[in-house]
Specification:
about 260 residues; alpha/beta; Rossmann fold; about 45% helix; about 10% strand
């Protein structure tokens, strides 16, 4: 048991993340969603040990898992960054009241970029998850980041609930937008490529100049059903999940910018 100098038990978060292997798993999942076998390779530890510590992190509320829509026998693990941030804030407050959660780094204005960072979001149909991500990144950065989305098998039009949820929850109008195929962006340069669909992750091609690749394992909200009662709540949950991930992505983009402008 970890004990502070004052003799009180350290917060549960500190005890949970203090284990070296659990910390390695957290740092890997902070970058992308992964399957167990991928984490086994990344941390170079036996699968039974990795599974045990993933279970500890999941029981502690820091990690969640979702069944893969590409292969139902697999699951993707996801780090709940909001939960981690809150736990860190609570830990700081327990140590000293002057310690407070810092604000996320801001994205510089367009004129401050050496070259605007380009981010591509990919799902299968480019009708729900990836256009939601594209719209929210453009919204949160006021166009200071070039956001694009595409699909491996694009549908003829955006899902009506995509248009509705962005309008009602974020006051964003994408009614004039149409899905595009990955082939349409094959020759472009991207700094970050984010797949939001397990099937699209397997089909996503390589891009030149080695963009940073990450995966967000997010179920297709359109699979919840066609009725408003079944379908629209799924779109609201998806939009909320994507919005949380986008807000955390801003810190990564701001860090990327700082690295670019350093002499």
């Amino acid at each position: 048991m970890v004990v502070s100098q004052q003799g009180t038990t350290a917060p549960a978060f500190v005890q949970l993340v203090a284990h070296p292997l659990r910390w390695k798993l957290l740092t890997a999942l902070a970058d992308s969603d992964y399957r167990v076998r991928e984490l086994v390779t990344l941390v170079d530890q036996p699968q039974n040990l990795v599974s045990y510590h993933l279970r500890q992190l999941r029981d502690g509320g820091l990690v969640t898992s979702t069944r893969s829509s590409f292969d139902g026998r697999d699951s993707y693990y996801h780090l709940d960054l909001d939960r981690c941030a809150q736990a860190l804030a609570d830990t700081g407050a327990a140590l000293h009241p002057a310690l407070r959660r810092d604000a996320a780094p801001s994205i510089p204005a367009v004129g401050q970029w050496n070259r605007r960072i380009n981010v591509l979001f990919v799902c299968t149909g480019n009708s729900a998850r990836s256009p939601i991500a594209e719209a929210l990144l453009a919204h949160h950065t006021a166009g200071r980041v070039q956001a694009t989305s595409a699909g491996s098998r694009p549908r003829p039009r955006l899902h009506p609930n995509t248009v509705r949820v962005l309008r009602e929850a974020f006051d964003i109008d994408v009614s004039g937008q149409h899905p595009r195929h990955l082939d349409a962006v094959a020759g472009r340069r991207f700094d970050h490529v984010v797949t939001l669909c397990d099937k699209a992750r397997e089909a996503c091609p390589e891009f030149g100049r080695q963009p940073r690749r990450v995966h967000w394992s997010i179920p297709d909200p359109a699979a919840a059903g066609d009725t408003d009662r079944a379908g629209y709540p799924a779109f609201r949950r998806t939009a909320a999940d994507v919005d949380t991930r986008i807000r955390h992505l801003l810190s990564v983009l701001a860090t990327d910018h700082r690295r670019r402008v350093q002499p």
